[in-house]
Amino acid sequence: MTPRFSVVIPAYNAAATLARAIESVRAQSWPAHEIIVVDDGSSDATADVAAGFGDDVRLIRQPNQGVAAARNRGAREASGDWLAFLDADDWYAPDRLRLHAEWIAEDPTLDFLTGDYEYRDEAGTPLGTSMAQHDAGRRMLDKAGGARRVVMDAADEIAAFVADHFGDTHTLSLRRERFIALGGYPVGFKVCEDVHLLTRLVAVSRRIGVSCACLAVYLIHGGSATRRDPVAAQRENVRTLADLARLAENFPLPVRQGVAARMADARYNLGCALVREGQRLAAVRAVWPSFAARPGRQSLRRLLSMLKG
């Protein structure tokens, strides 16, 4: 099977960076079946930038509904059998699609694929790679033993991946029919919607292909919502994960374990953010559900560590 990739790029007021993202897709060593830009109600020249690429880009315009709705719209309109996503301020490495497409053609039993990527700041300075900075990623690099590919299929690997995943939206490749069946990205959440979809995808998967090569670049912004208002961002994170935890009751055990660990970390991070703002009582309330679920010395040490700041 030769996969046909539809690359979906949601864009909101992204006129300054969209051309770079599109060019990175056009430069792929494995050509995309189509490039879809969803202009999510931009007030700048985003649509003009996309339209400037002519027939190379399919432009869809909609009122502002958020990034999840924009990605979902692009996926619904896609004509390829596989989906890949790219945010308008990030970009693909030249072999991003080829490394996944060739593997898909060789091994149709893969449920979905992900991979490594590079962090950079707004000046373009490299800040490390995703897999090396996450426990789940380091496990897979060790398993790969220097190979460029490795399959994630063991229970402990999956639990670790759900708890603290490497890879991101721009390294995810999945069948369009699976994306549609899962309902796509959840709308109504400001953060962590990518984790919500990824976890639901893992829950119905057995063999996950991991490319150890860097597939894309993720740009870290100094003025991100997390940095502007960390308490609000962490509250939103917990809210999204609470919805996911509700669904997780029906997930396989390793996925449930991963969700529980991720929720505990999210509550801890919210507590730390509250402590930094002098709201110690609110911080204790934030982490208490996790402490009550798993009381013990380790949980107590974590609570005290949070309160110390």
Description:
β1, α1 and β2 form a beta-alpha-beta unit. It contains 13 helices and 10 strands. The chain has helices at residues 18-26, 46-51, 67-77, 96-106, 135-144, 155-163, 176-182, 193-203, 225-228, 230-247, 253-276, 280-293, 297-308, and strands spanning 5-11, 34-40, 58-62, 82-85, 91-92, 112-121, 126-129, 149-152, 173-175, 208-220. The protein is of the alpha/beta class and 309 residues long. It is globular, with a radius of gyration of 20 Å. The chain has 2 domains: 5-221, Spore Coat Polysaccharide Biosynthesis Protein SpsA, Chain A; 227-308, no CATH class. Strands 1, 2, 3, 4, 5, 6, 7, 8, 9 and 10 form a 10-stranded mixed β-sheet that branches. The model has no long low-confidence stretch (mean pLDDT 95). InterPro entries: Glyco_trans_2-like, Glycosyltransf_2, Nucleotide-diphossugar_trans.
Q: What is the element layout, followed by pairings?
A:
Elements: E1 5-11, H1 18-26, E2 34-40, H2 46-51, E3 58-62, H3 67-77, E4 82-85, E5 91-92, H4 96-106, E6 112-121, E7 126-129, H5 135-144, E8 149-152, H6 155-163, E9 173-175, H7 176-182, H8 193-203, E10 208-220, H9 225-228, H10 230-247, H11 253-276, H12 280-293, H13 297-308
Parallel strand pairs: 1-2, 1-4, 2-3, 6-10
Antiparallel strand pairs: 4-9, 5-10, 6-7, 6-9, 8-10
Helix pairs in contact: 5-6, 6-11, 8-10, 10-11, 11-12, 11-13, 12-13
| CATH level 1 name of the largest domain | Alpha Beta
The name CATH uses for the topology of the largest domain is Spore Coat Polysaccharide Biosynthesis Protein SpsA, Chain A
The average pLDDT value, as a whole number, equals 95
Report how far the terminal alpha carbons are from each other: 53 Å
- Radius of gyration from the alpha-carbon trace, in angstroms: 20 Å
Structural class by sheet pairing and helices: alpha/beta
Q: Biggest sheet, open or closed, and with what strands and sense?
A: 10 strands, mixed
CATH architecture of the largest domain: Alpha-Beta Complex
Number of helices: 13
The SSE order reads EHEHEHEEHEEHEHEHHEHHHHH
Low-confidence stretches: none
Count of the domains: 2
CATH superfamily of the largest domain: Spore Coat Polysaccharide Biosynthesis Protein SpsA, Chain A
Give the tally of β-strands: 10
What sort of overall outline do the alpha carbons produce when their principal axes are compared?
Answer: globular
Q: Per DSSP, what share of the residues sits in E-state strands of 2 or more residues?
A: 15-25%
Q: What percentage of residues falls in helices of 4 or more residues?
A: 40-55%
Pfam families: Glycos_transf_2
GO molecular function: transferase activity
Keywords: Transferase
Protein name: Glycosyltransferase
